């Protein structure tokens, strides 16, 4: 074993971290997509 394998900074499961990153990214893009549609719908009502 090398020194990096002995001194691990994070022992989290990589699958959990990857899943969390996917969900956060997906939600961020969803918000970016939904906000203009809300403005469009509100603009049509006026």
From TrEMBL:
Entry annotated with the keyword Transmembrane: yes
Keywords: Membrane, Transmembrane, Transmembrane helix
TM spans (from-to): 20-39
Name of this chain's protein: YqzM-like protein
């Amino acid at each position: 074993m090398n020194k990096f394998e002995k001194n691990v900074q994070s022992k989290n499961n990589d699958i959990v971290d990857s899943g969390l990153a996917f969900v956060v990214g997906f939600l961020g893009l969803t918000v970016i997509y939904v906000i203009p549609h809300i403005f469009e719908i509100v603009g049509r009502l006026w």
